[in-house]
Amino acid sequence: MFKRLLVLFCVLLLAFPVQATVYIVEPLDQTASQDEELSFGKISRGETLKLVVKKKSDLDAEWDSLEIDSTLLPSDWKIGSLSTDKTLIAFATVPKDAPISTQRIKFTVINSNFPLFGESFYGTVSVQESLLSASIENLGKETVLGESSVFDIVINNDSITSHSVVVESTLPSYWFTPTVVELGPHETKPVELKVDPYSYGEKNFSFKVSSLLNDSEFIFPARLDVMPTLGGMYWSALAGFPFFSPGMLPFYLVNGFLGLLS
Questions:
Q1: What is the Cα–Cα distance from 22 to 14, expressed in whole angstroms?
Q2: Coarse DSSP helix, strand, coil percentages of the chain, rounded to the nearest 5 percent
Q3: Which of 10, 67, 113, 248 is a good FRET partner for 88, with 20 to 30 A between their CA atoms?
C-alpha cells in the first residue's frame, strides 16, 4: 500500500511540477525561474565569471548545490563551485586564448533532499579579446630634484567581472615602484603614479599597463624634466652612481653626507 502511495505521489509531482524562484546576487541582481534565459554581458579572455545565488528559495528547504553544465562549454573552460553560509557560487574561467564568441551556460540549483525540485536556467556571455582601456592625460611633467612628480592614469574595466593589472615603467626601481591595480566589474579607477627623480635633466621613459589575466597591455611614452637644486644634487648622490667615475668616489660620498645634513 505504501509503495502505491509513493508511486502516486511521484506521478503527481511530475504532473504538477513545483517551481521555485532563484535569487541571483552576481553578476546580476535579479531572479530567475525554470529555463529562463539571462544575458550577463561581456567578459574578457582570462577572466572568471562568478555566479552568486542565495540559498533561500520559495520552498521550505534551501538550495544546497549549484552546478554548471560543462557539456555546453568548450572543453578548455575551467568550472567549479563553492558554498558559503548564505550563498552558492559557481565559477567559469575563460581561457587566455579563447576565440571571440557568445557562450550559453546552463546553471542548476538543487536541494539534495528533494532533487525533483531543482531549477535550471541559462546565462549568456559575450567573450571579448580585451575589455580594458587606459589613458594618461599629461605625459610631460616638470619638477625639481628631490621632489616627487605625479602622473595621473585612468584605467577602465568594461567587463562583468573583476580584473587585475600591473603598472610598470622603464625607470629604475628607486624612481618608480610597480603598482598592482584591482578593478571591479564595470569600474573606472584613477591611479596616481608617483615618480621620485634622483638626477636632474630630461628623462625620457615609458609606463606600461599590463593585464595579469591575459595579454592586453598599453604603453605610454613619457618625459620628465628635472631642474637641479643644491640640496637635491647632494641628496641624489646617495641613490646610485649615475654620473661619477670610480676615481671620484670620495667626492661622491662626501656630497651624499652633505645632502643628509642639508
A1: 20
A2: 15, 45, 35
A3: 10
- Gap between the Cα atoms of 73 and 246, Å rounded: 64
DSSP assigned state of 192: E
Cα 120-124-126 angle, rounded to 5 deg:
165
End-to-end CA distance of the chain: 100
The closest of 76, 75, 60, 63 to 107, measured between CA atoms, is 63
Cα 23 from Cα 193, distance rounded (Å): 41
Contact 202, 225 (CB under 8 A): yes
Q: Phi and psi (nearest 5°) for 116?
A: -70, -15
The amino acid occupying position 176 is F
List, in sequence order, every beta strand (DSSP E) within the chain. Answer: 22-26, 30-32, 37-44, 48-54, 65-68, 78-83, 87-93, 101-110, 119-128, 132-136, 140-144, 149-157, 163-169, 179-183, 188-195, 201-211, 217-227
Q: What is the pLDDT along the chain (262 residues), one digit of tens a residue?
A: 545 544 444 444 444 455 678 999 999 999 998 999 999 999 999 999 999 999 998 777 889 999 999 999 999 999 999 999 999 999 999 999 999 999 999 999 998 887 777 899 999 999 999 999 999 989 999 999 989 999 999 999 999 999 999 999 999 999 999 999 999 999 999 999 999 999 999 999 999 999 999 999 999 999 999 998 755 555 555 554 444 444 444 544 555 444 444 4
